[in-house]
Amino acid sequence: MGTSSMYGGYSNGGSQNNPLIPPDFEDSGEENTNDEGNEYNQEDQNSEDFDQSSEDSNVEKPDEQTIEWSNAKNYMSKLASGKSTNIKGAVSRYIKAYGGAKSASRNAVGGIKTTIRLGNFVRSISEQGIKETLDEFKIDYKDKSTKEILSELINILAPSPDTKDDAIARKALILTMEVLYELMEKEDLDIESFENLDLNIIIPTYIEVYIYQKLINDLGSRIESNCKSAPDAVRLENDIKEYIHSKIETVFMGKKMNDYDFSIKETLSLYNQCYTVIEDLL
Fold this sequence. Notes:
The structure is a single chain. By secondary structure, the protein is mainly alpha-helical. The chain is 63% helix and 0% strand. The chain contains 12 helices and no strands. α6 (109-128) packs across α7 and α8 (146-157) runs antiparallel to α9 (164-186). The longest helix is centred in the C-terminal third of the chain and has 25 residues, at 202-226. The two termini are 24 Å apart.
């Protein structure tokens, strides 16, 4: 899967100094049903049915679910306060609060949709080249900087969100593209060199960032309120991030992203594998 330099390139917040953030990102938590500009929408296997089936599959007894979420929050609070050092236990309980890896995967609706779109973009580059792919995505790349092109791509792959999970998925894509942009800038590469990069890094990185950002969205307040200082909170968040990285890295080892068709079923399976290794019940 890539090296820690690729994975470690994104920050926890990522929004304030990110050169790729579209102007509307700070408002992305608000509902917006305007899909204008989303010309290329490849998740063509009835994503609305997927949304509904995800909701239906998450039915659980309220009292049981409340108990599991209470356990997850309490364990993260202990981790943040220093009463525990068991990151594995805290992350495992977090996934259990969703009903386990399978249920957590089916709740990753925004992440899966964006992964499908990003996967089709990546595969298209390998099959026909970057310029042809940008043309297919209706992105005018002439006389535009790499930053401008990647920013426009974000708006196509993850439009202004309708739900909280869509907002998390969009933020994860922005952070992933930031990593890619920084890598290209460091190597002094232009957009044409995109097709020469190791594209097997992009999908695993996106999924890692999404899973981490969703955890922080769900339990980050426990870290903020229970850590003794801001540096301690940053340290813990980085430790959790590295734990997720170390687990998910094993899922993608030896996998070739170009071999995937990025259907809903296949992408859901990828997420299930990732959440399963993170839950780590063995």
